[in-house]
């Protein structure tokens, strides 16, 4: 299906266009409707339709002005069909000069619009096929050039070819993203084409089969890490396996590509050995004590405060963490790289507990903007502080919810299985909890210790059996979970003040037994 956007400032005309024409029969899907030229411009930039059918006379931004803006702003503007209530030669002449596909007079004749849609569908499909073929050919050329560069080939001619094919200037700031996934099930070229309208973002595959991206910073100002997260999410969902995305530092021009690739490849090598999944930046060569290790103590202290929910400690830990960079690292982008790793750890823990990390990310972006756009250490410090405070708060909520659910299931399990051999340590292992903490939660929710609750359940069942059956005392003990009869008798007396035999006699049980057997002598 090809996408079409309908534009008219008259709602009734818009509704007529939508309902009176069998769009899907002719291979078109309505991706949106706009009541003004300015609204249409925004929707065209967002949805990238192949075809726009627009009225010519609209307030603020006319149909012709909309076409002119699209031709000026977009690398590949859609085809336009212009509608007009006036048979005005000047309008038609301007429209033709702007290369509109057709100029139609209202009211639209059914035959005219249907024959036009057939013609446009064929034309657009032909263009799409040609573009895909050209894109594949261009991707092959670019992939070959990038591999020659990362393997160390140089020379003025190669650099000129690279600059021309990749549309990268000498002063262009670049970063390399390298994806380590097995299996790699995503067509990265197709993902790039759909995600980045800018032709300067290039996918490649290295000699070992790993796929990567070369991203000029100007294409995604301050948002490279956001794109990397989207890439990680896309590949993870597709493969269903752990995915590592490594991000290099920044370099300038074609001459930096080999070094940027080396950095990303080094991150992949180190992090893969650690079995890591996620998004990781190059933070200096991994020889001896790295820059990351130099700040690890402060990062660990901050993470400990967040994971433990100690909000009162987060402020000082966050300030010390950022101060350690501000004092020693002149590159603010490197600081942001560590903050992205901090984000990743917090978001990952939220997801593990069943929360929605995207919600926290949206809150941060709405309140403080994108991390990549923050210009100084004070802004980054505020961002980190809010990330950690809000992250700790959300983690505390999720822990409480999970604890409530877990202890509910533990109590249900004890109520159902009290006749079995139950031990707190074994239950803790079964429900993936610390035994001491489980004991505390159990008492908080039942008002009794685990052993007291278990004994009460067993004694209550024993009383029922003694009243209603003719089972021996030893058999009752076994049935309620006490293999030692003397121990059972002692527990029963402590609980009821009576021996089981006296309780049985006092109850005056005369009913037919539920099970065979005779009473103890």
UniProtKB/TrEMBL annotation:
Cellular localization per UniProt: Cytoplasm
Residue span, HTH araC/xylS-type domain: 408-506
Keyword DNA damage: no
Protein name, UniProt field: Response regulator
Keyword DNA-binding on entry: yes
SUPFAM superfamilies membership: CheY-like, Homeodomain-like
Single annotated GO MF: sequence-specific DNA binding
InterPro entries attached to this UniProt entry: CheY-like_superfamily, Homeodomain-like_sf, HptR, HTH_AraC, HTH_AraC-typ_CS, Sig_transdc_resp-reg_receiver
Domain Response regulatory: 3-121
PANTHER family: HISTIDINE KINASE-RELATED, TRANSCRIPTIONAL REGULATORY PROTEIN HPTR
Segments forming a coiled coil: none
UniProt-listed PROSITE patterns: HTH_ARAC_FAMILY_1 (PS00041), HTH_ARAC_FAMILY_2 (PS01124), RESPONSE_REGULATORY (PS50110)
Species of origin: Paenibacillus woosongensis
Example GO biological process: phosphorelay signal transduction system
GO CC, one annotated term: cytoplasm
Residues with 4-aspartylphosphate modification: 55
UniProt cross-references to Gene3D superfamilies, sorted A to Z: 3.40.50.2300, Homeodomain-like (1.10.10.60)
Main location, first listed in the record: cytoplasm
Keywords from the UniProt entry: Cytoplasm, DNA-binding, Phosphoprotein, Transcription, Transcription regulation, Two-component regulatory system
């Amino acid at each position: 299906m090809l996408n079409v956007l309908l534009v008219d400032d008259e709602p009734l005309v818009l509704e007529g266009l939508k309902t009176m024409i069998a769009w899907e029969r002719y291979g078109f899907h309505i991706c949106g409707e706009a009541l003004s030229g300015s609204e249409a411009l925004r929707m065209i930039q967002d949805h990238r339709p192949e075809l726009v059918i627009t009225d010519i006379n609209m307030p603020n931004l006319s149909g012709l002005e909309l076409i002119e803006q699209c031709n000026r702003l977009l690398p590949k503007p859609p085809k336009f069909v212009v509608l007009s209530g006036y048979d005005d030669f000047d309008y038609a002449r301007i429209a033709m000069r702007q290369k509109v596909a057709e100029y139609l007079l209202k009211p639209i004749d059914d035959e005219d619009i249907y024959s036009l849609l057939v013609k446009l569908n064929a034309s657009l499909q032909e263009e799409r096929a040609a573009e895909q073929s050209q894109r594949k050919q261009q991707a092959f050329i670019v992939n070959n050039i990038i591999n020659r560069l990362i393997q160390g080939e140089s020379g003025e001619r190669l650099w000129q070819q690279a600059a021309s094919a990749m549309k990268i200037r000498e002063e262009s700031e670049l970063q390399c993203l390298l994806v380590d996934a097995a299996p790699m099930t995503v067509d990265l070229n197709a993902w790039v084409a759909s995600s980045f309208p800018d032709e300067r973002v290039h996918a490649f595959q290295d000699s070992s089969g790993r796929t990567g991206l070369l991203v000029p910073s100007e294409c995604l100002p301050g948002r490279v890490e956001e794109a990397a997260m989207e890439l990680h999410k896309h590949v993870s969902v597709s493969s269903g396996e752990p995915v590592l995305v490594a991000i290099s530092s920044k370099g300038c021009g074609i001459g930096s590509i080999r070094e940027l690739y080396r950095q990303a490849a080094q991150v992949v090598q180190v992090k893969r050995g650690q079995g890591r999944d996620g998004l990781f930046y190059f933070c200096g060569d991994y020889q001896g004590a790295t820059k990351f290790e130099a700040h690890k103590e402060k990062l660990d202290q901050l993470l400990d405060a967040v994971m433990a929910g100690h909000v009162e400690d987060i402020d000082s830990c966050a300030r010390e963490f950022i101060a350690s960079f501000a004092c020693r690292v002149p590159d603010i982008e490197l600081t942001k790289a560590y903050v992205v790793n901090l984000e990743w750890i917090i978001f990952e823990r939220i997801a593990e507990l069943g929360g929605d990390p995207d919600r926290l990310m949206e809150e941060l972006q709405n309140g403080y903007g994108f991390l990549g756009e923050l210009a100084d250490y004070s802004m980054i410090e505020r961002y980190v502080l809010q990330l950690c405070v809000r992250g700790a708060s959300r983690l505390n909520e999720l822990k409480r919810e999970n604890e409530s659910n877990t202890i509910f299931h533990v109590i249900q399990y004890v109520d159902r299985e009290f006749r079995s051999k139950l031990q707190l340590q074994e239950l803790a292992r079964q429900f993936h909890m610390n035994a001491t903490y489980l004991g505390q939660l159990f008492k908080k929710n039942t008002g009794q210790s685990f052993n007291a609750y278990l004994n009460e359940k067993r004694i209550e069942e024993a009383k029922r059996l003694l009243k209603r059956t003719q089972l021996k005392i030893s058999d009752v003990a076994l049935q309620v979970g006490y293999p030692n009869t003397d121990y059972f008798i002692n527990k029963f007396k402590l609980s009821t003040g009576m021996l089981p035999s006296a309780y049985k006699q006092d109850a005056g049980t005369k009913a037919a037994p539920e099970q065979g057997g005779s009473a103890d002598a």
